[in-house]
Give the backbone structure.
Amino acid sequence: MLNRRGEETRQLIKKSSCALFAEKGFKQVTMKDICERTKLSRGGLYCHYSSTQEIFHDILDDFMNHQEDTISEKIAQNIPAVNILNDILETYRQEMMDSPSSLSLAILEYFSLRNLSDTENELFQQYQMSLKSWKNLIRYGIERGEFHHVDVEAVFHLIIFAYQGVRMYSKLMPIKEDIPTGVVEQIKKILIKKNQL
Amino acid sequence: MLNRRGEETRQLIKKSSCALFAEKGFKQVTMKDICERTKLSRGGLYCHYSSTQEIFHDILDDFMNHQEDTISEKIAQNIPAVNILNDILETYRQEMMDSPSSLSLAILEYFSLRNLSDTENELFQQYQMSLKSWKNLIRYGIERGEFHHVDVEAVFHLIIFAYQGVRMYSKLMPIKEDIPTGVVEQIKKILIKKNQL
Amino acid sequence: MLNRRGEETRQLIKKSSCALFAEKGFKQVTMKDICERTKLSRGGLYCHYSSTQEIFHDILDDFMNHQEDTISEKIAQNIPAVNILNDILETYRQEMMDSPSSLSLAILEYFSLRNLSDTENELFQQYQMSLKSWKNLIRYGIERGEFHHVDVEAVFHLIIFAYQGVRMYSKLMPIKEDIPTGVVEQIKKILIKKNQL
Amino acid sequence: MLNRRGEETRQLIKKSSCALFAEKGFKQVTMKDICERTKLSRGGLYCHYSSTQEIFHDILDDFMNHQEDTISEKIAQNIPAVNILNDILETYRQEMMDSPSSLSLAILEYFSLRNLSDTENELFQQYQMSLKSWKNLIRYGIERGEFHHVDVEAVFHLIIFAYQGVRMYSKLMPIKEDIPTGVVEQIKKILIKKNQL
DNA sequence: TATGAATGAGTCTTCATTCAT
DNA sequence: AATGAATGAAGACTCATTCAT
């Protein structure tokens, strides 16, 4: 019965839904669930969004737009590649351990409901952005003599899919701290020359 | 002695459902879908299974029971670790590329619907069996001087989650041959000593 | 909870719906109404029909298939045209006065919801069948010297649309006996030669 | 003095709604549709009308009030009955062919939603006004020796219901020019004495 | 075992309507 | 007067599940 400004309500819906998606995945969340969580009426919710897909899309959009390419910035600042790598991997490690707030399952479900064939899907775009950043970083590390002469793309794929794999399984299986830590350490070993450690 | 007719029907149900799960994931598949695919009536299906969970469980069971520990066997036969590894990785590579028949998405959804807290879930058991086999293999390789002295568990995790990560994403994104190949090559580099290649 | 044979239930649905359509027109009748009238559950109804359109279509089909061309039969029997005409017009008169059981409003609404452009709609087919029968009759009457030399199609249109007009308005306005009677008498005067009356 | 702004909006609403009613009939048009067509907000529309019934009623009212009894005027001017008749029938003919702008379906639906029992409904009033005018005309024609000695009411009913019947069906079926023309010609034949043609 | 009719709960979706601004 | 957010009720539709045959 409140009469908020529209954008406020949209934010509320996104926030509440995001929590629900993280808890239950994508398909388990119904418009009804979101009504209950937001305390909005059926019709009230439909004023702003007409499906969970639409809400999820908006949430993803927000994520994407808030992601800046910090790697490139740091490279521009001439920060040592090892330091940049360590920072990223520490973030990854944290994320692999923070299962409850992870949308990875929901993302997977969301995209599995759509026609994957189109190369234009957001997931693929994300992947490509990520690929670009990592390529820059690895090449930068190699140029600076901090990293081994590795197959850049192959190493990227190993990193990114191991990371995604852990995130996914953390929703389904008890993942203790040692797994993310071990994975991160292995990645460092692959990339960083011994004298830099 | 099993009732032949009944067992046949169960096989039919499992086969049809398996295809459906691979196509659509777990939650998208309804008892109704399965009725249609198997050409069984509602009641007919319920004679054998009373939920998709039950069917999926049975399918997983079949998979598990058909998986023998070929690694241990090969080790017992004193086959070179590098050969064993190459075989396994080739299988993995094939699987990473065979997206359509992959149940990975369905598995994920299936387990995400249950109470993950229980360490006794089948996924975890699978994980542990896999861990045991790989540990044996890696140690065997190290003992024989074929593999580097690596952190056994950490390398296992890197391998297994990268593999699972690729399988998962192959359902959602175009995964070309080079990704599985690159990932497999990286794993080989981590494990196998140069003089063995 | 009864477990009738399917066709029985379909008959029940058609009968109940038909009454509802006659009472309320087409769009006023909801699947829910039909559930209540038939004492079927939501799902039970949907087993047989998935929309009111489908039910109405079936009802119309039944009507069409039960309509035989009695006019042609009578002509074949060499019955006097005046007698045939009198019979038909008496039926029309009765129908114009039996507003409660008339589906005319429902028919109108039903067809107005569809794409009228297609000449293949059932209403048009009905019209054409009717046209054919009347043409035969009028020509037969003229040949036998019982009817005036009229413009066959024009007279048909006058008859049929006046009849339909009355039926329609009988749903909306009090139509006393004199209107149908008067209309029928006028038609007779147009067609029948004085010496035949 | 009416609030100019307000009256303008009401006119806009009536005009837009009228188009919608002609397109879709009465029940298919929702307050939401009208909001969209008029570009008014929900609340804005409700400032003026609180239901589609109210709007439709107003539209009908306007129609009724704009209808003057031109027949009586012409009779007063001693214009030949045949001329008057020809004018009216030409108007009817035009209207029977102008299906898109016809409200007949909407009118039917509108009145079918109300309690038909009341003899006081607007439709009936319309009918009575029309009856009165036509009676005058036909009697006038008879008196002047231009028209046959017909049963005035019966002929009126034949005319008016055939006209309404065609208008109605023109919404549902392809009605070519020959139908209205034929109907009009028949009516002339019934009324007009041969020597007047 | 197997059929398929029937139930009923859950969810989606659309609107008429109200109300703070 | 006008806006548009919010409510809530009505109706549609889909399934898991049961049951008489």
